[in-house]
Amino acid sequence: MALIENRKMGDRSALAWCGLIIFFFCFSSSHFAEASDNFHRQKLKLVDFKDRISASKGDFSTDLKVKKSGVLPIAELSAFAAAPGSDPTRSGFIAVSDRDPKLWRTNKLDLKDSSKFPSAIETLTDLLHPMGFMLSECIENSSKFCRKTREGLSAQWEGADIDQNQQLWLLQESTESVHIFDSDATQRHTIINLELAAPKGVTSPPFPSLKDKEDSFYEGIHVISNQQFLLAQQAAPSALVLFEIKDNPSTGNRFPQIRTAKASKSWLLPSPYQNCALSELASFEDNLFLLSPSCHVILKVQLNTNLAQLAVTEVLSYPSYLEHAEALLVLSNHQFLVGLDGKSGDQDNVFLLEPSSQ
């Protein structure tokens, strides 16, 4: 009898140990699965960010290759511009230099004959010539103000765009201004001074602080209307900033007109790209494109007035040996012309980029 009782107690003890082992195994498996799931989710935040922000945009990343290269005899290319809806392969485009205060126009863009790529060019406008400068009091005046003005306008032309009225808008860094030329790009009829302070009471998203930051000015321009335009903030942080012209045109015979534009809203790049310094802003159809020479990418972005961040819908990577890319012309959603900020204009400085899969 005692033997039977001992056996029963042994059986119960064994069952208890089995139950404890099963419980421990299930508990451990559950926590391991949860921990594994948590790790997987954390990993997704890093590697699948692109999928989360563009779930319905198709392929997010595209590798670009150099299809053609050529020379524009212009030192330090800084911007390209073509009229909205035009075909640069037929009508050409405007090129801007960061060092030489001139505008050039190409006759056409030959994509088939490499020996003719990019194309012949002609000098369009000397930005310091009286016909272009149009500030008569500074054409021959040697005052300190006029000397500084001429020196400022002699370089650092950092962005260009052509609006629906065929007017050319040029971004000037050293004088913190935007200059509007007529459709022939020969006469400057308006100068817009940029008010760089953030709007009163606006703290989110943070507006760039530019006055005491080197290499943190704007590097590209996209005209929305005759009262609004976007500028690409180069860095600290990288962003798009909307400027609005609030004042009325000056009265009297003053020419060019002097206007003032104020920053009204900004959009930051998402966290994976906030350290990508920007050098140019361009558009095609309803899309905006940002050129980043530090990350060697062209970011296809969309902005929403109700959001504080840009939506990156595609990342187009170009070869890392193309250093100091400054100028961008979008020929299609997957075909780009990139210009390099080279110190001389006697080496290849213009590159046609297309997807590697083509």
Task: Describe what is shown at a glance.
The chain is 19% helix and 36% strand. With 358 residues, the protein is an alpha+beta fold.
List the helices and strands and how they pair.
Elements lengths: L1 H46 L1 H5 L7 E10 L6 E5 L6 H4 L2 E4 L4 E5 L14 E6 L3 H4 L10 H10 L3 E6 L5 E5 L4 E5 L6 E8 L22 E6 L4 E6 L5 E7 L11 E12 L11 E5 L2 E6 L4 E6 L8 E7 L7 E8 L2 E6 L9 E6 L3
Walk me through the structure.
The chain is α+β, with helices and mostly antiparallel strands and 358 residues long. The chain folds into 2 domains: 1-47; 57-124 and 194-250 and 260-355, no CATH class. It contains 5 helices and 20 strands. The strands form 3 sheets. It has an 8-stranded mixed sheet with strand order 14-15-16-17-1-20-19-18, with no helix packed on it. Strands 6-7-8-9-13-12-11-10 form an 8-stranded mixed sheet. It has a 4-stranded antiparallel sheet with strand order 2-3-4-5.
Defining traits:
358 residues; alpha+beta; 2 domains; eight-stranded mixed sheet; disordered N terminus
Rg result: 29 Å
Q: Widest sheet: strand order?
A: 14-15-16-17-1-20-19-18
Mean pLDDT across every amino acid position: 75
End-to-end separation in angstroms reads 88 Å
Number of strands: 20
How helix-rich are the residues, as a percent range? 10-25%
Largest sheet properties: 8 strands, mixed
Count of the domains = 2
Order of helices and strands: HHEEHEEEHHEEEEEEEEEEEEEEE
Strand content: 35-45%
- The helix-and-strand class reads alpha+beta
Low-pLDDT windows of residues: 1-59
Put simply, the count of helices is 5
**Can you tell me the overall shape?**
globular
